[in-house]
Amino acid sequence: MKLTPTTEKFILHWGEMGSRWGVNRTVAQIHALLYLAEKSLNAEQISETLGVARSNVSTSLKELQSWGLVKVIHRMGDRRDYFESQKDVWDIFFVISEERKRRELDPTLTLLRECVLEGEADKKTSPVVKERIQETLLFLEQITGWYEQIRKLDPKTLSRLMKLGSKIKNLLSN
């Protein structure tokens, strides 16, 4: 696959953003390539297109599959695995959001709940610290509750909601 300057720019930037979000740069670049690709690609094609070692591609593809961002496709008469990314940006957004929630927020919520419970019996921890832990827990519970509600909306409704922007603030101010 030959990359155009625009495609290359997108893939490189996606890799940079991935590294800022704590995702390996190559993993993010492979995801970007598969997202933009008009047809599924095998690992060798990905390796050649991005100039990345084949072993790195294999490891990256496994990670992308574990996130649910990439799936394996088989072609009749070809023993190689081909890969394709989800193409709908809302699907990608929710897959990433759900995985981050599962990997980051859920364990944090568990820890905060434990801290609140332990803090009730802990006489050495100051009331200020206990209050801040409780506030953090309540905030994250609100965020995850809001996320669960938003997650149930269809993309068309979500787009309309986002387009309302500051109009929601005005509606709530009345």
How many angstroms separate the termini?
Answer: 55 Å
Helix content: over 70%
- Compute the number of strand runs: 3
Q: Which secondary-structure class do the elements indicate?
A: mainly alpha
Total number of distinct structural domains: 2
User: How would you sum up the major sheet?
Assistant: 3 strands, antiparallel
Order of helices and strands: HHEHHEEHHHH
Please state how the strands of the largest beta sheet are arranged side by side: 1-3-2
In round numbers, the mean pLDDT is 94
Q: Could you name the ranges where pLDDT drops below 50 across 5 or more consecutive residues?
A: none
Oligomeric category: single chain
Q: Helix segment count?
A: 8
Round the Cα radius of gyration to an integer and report it: 21 Å
Short description:
With 174 residues, this protein is mostly helical. Helix content is 72%, strand content 9%. The N and C termini lie far apart (55 Å).
Could you explain how this protein is built, in words?
Pfam families: MarR_2. This protein has 8 helices and 3 strands. The chain is mainly α and 174 residues long. The chain has 2 domains: 81 residues, Orthogonal Bundle (Arc Repressor Mutant, subunit A); 85 residues, no CATH class. A hairpin with a 2-residue loop joins strand 2 and strand 3. The N and C termini lie far apart (55 Å). The relative contact order is 0.07. The mean pLDDT is 94.
